[in-house]
Amino acid sequence: MPVSNTDIIERIARVIAGRVVSSNAEGDDPSAGDRVDSIWRDYREDAVSILRTLREPDPAMAGAGDVE
Fold it and tell me: Is the distance from CB of 32 to CB of 40 less than 8 angstroms?
């Protein structure tokens, strides 16, 4: 199984930053890697907010888990 060496908050923040600046998403930078490296920390709180929403499972997630 592949395992990331990067913290989950950083990974999510980098995805958000990439969506903001990359021309492959909503931005205008055709080569956004360096820019993402420099701004991803600005999106840490967004990443934390996303993870907080996952603490409470939806019905399908709850049904798949072991209640006990």
Answer: no
